[in-house]
Specification:
Layout (H helix, E strand, L loop, with lengths): L3 H17 L16 H13 L4 E2 L2 E2 L3 E12 L3 E7 L4 E7 L3 E2 L27 E10 L5 E12 L15 H6 L1 H7 L1 H23 L3 E2 L5 E2 L11 E4 L4 E5 L4 H9 L4 E9 L11 E10 L3 H19 L4 E4 L2 E4 L5 E4 H9 L9 H10 L10 H13 L7 E4 L11 E2 L2 E5 L1 E6 L2 E8 L4 H16 L10 H8 L5 E7 H9 L19
Parallel strand pairs: 5-8, 6-8, 9-13, 17-18
Antiparallel strand pairs: 1-2, 3-4, 3-7, 4-5, 7-8, 10-12, 11-12, 13-14, 14-23, 15-16, 18-21, 19-20, 21-22, 22-23
Amino acid sequence: MPTEEELIFQRRKKRDLLRHSKYEAYPPRVWRGRINCSVAVARFESAERRSSLIDEGMMSQHVTLAGRVLAIRNMGSRAFVDVRDGTAKVQLNLGREAVFSDTKRPSQKAKWQSEVGIGLNVLDVGDFVQAYGRLFRTRLGEVTLQVESWGLLTKTLRPLPDKWHGISDVETRYRQRYLDLIANERSREIALLRTKVLAAVRLFYIKRDFIEVETPVLQDEAGGAAARPFITHHNALDRDFFLRISLELHLKRLLVGGFDKVFEIGRVFRNEGIDRRHNPEFSLLESYEAYTDYLHVAKMVEDLYRFVAMQVRGTLQIPFGEEIIDLGVPWARITYRDALRKYAGFTYSESTTVDDLRGIAAGHRIATEASDSKDTILDKLMSELVEPQLIQPTFLLDYPSELSPLAKKKPGFPDTAERFELFVLGYEMANAYSEQNDPDTQRLSMLDQAFKAAEGDEEVEIADEDFLTALEYGMPPAGGLGFGIERMVMLMAGEPSIREVILFPAMRDNQR
């Protein structure tokens, strides 16, 4: 078995043979008239159904195809070559009668270029080729191009991964995603599904008369969420900026400016850990609708998920491991405090102290740190005891107001915020509020967060003075929503790891 270095050496020799024979190993363009492989197959099958367009089993029209060579079955003077472009795979039937050319399609009367030794001997799996001929169906039923002329488009120097085994090493799959996409059909399917999810989400909002906007990535204050930001330096202005951790505060400025329905799908950056559910860079959708509240948003979220599921999966029953997630039935609803009573066995109130929570955590063998705040321990209790129980779509409603500084308080319940989070399979899938629009109340909440930050809590809402000024000009009551696109794709794809649905996930250093 030759080594990779030996295979690279042999491929370089083939490339040099082409060049010495005055052929291009990397010609600048494809022959005119090239069509996608999927279009070619569809046209052939359509012609088959109208047999008058088929001449002795072969399509009368000539086509030009191009793509990467996935397999070569060499039979001496003839070879069957599997070629795939970005749409489909087609088999080529390459014989000695097929002319090799690198510039333009030669005449059908041209002869095999044997005098310069150019032909199948220069072809390797992984090369990009173009081919001209007519389609037919083999005895085994495979749509195949009977090649009359062909040429190389790109001579590859490195061998591809074994097509039967793909890439088994997970680290290699993520670090060299281009190889993963070549070798693993499942990775290609997920990448295409993500595109369909994004298109469906946009279509849903556009149908509801939302306008899509873009807001700054570089911000003076990283507000709108409780997360540690990344910091970068602007040379021309000679000052630091934060990479945004949410889209919220700028989108709500647009409500002040008179837009009633806005949404954005944008990258956000959170300086946090890497695990199966988290990547420090991800795509976030946020939407805001004036004159509505969080209950209106909850109904919209149900409609959104059902719409996307039908668009990309064609069903409301989504297989996920051993579970079938049913998006079609009415989604469960339970309040935050009722969930703690039901699954964690204690009653939470504003009088519950950090020591009370620490004792409850110890009783459940949940580790806490001496520096952990009340909010942090409460989050650990929810993550360990409650969230794993929420498998089918469940709205967790009415959060403690101290955990929701950007949300309105529930009328008659000053310790409760009009907020929900959606959970599926134990994952948080969405977060929504009845948005706080009282500038003085909002300022007090942000000052309280600043006090927590001074005590060492790094994940708090940052006071944004410009946003507070905007609120003083008046923002209508509104319902706001935020969710990670990756989480939605994970559900639709049935994938438990976020790194499967991000083409280039963050990776730890190779030496670690």
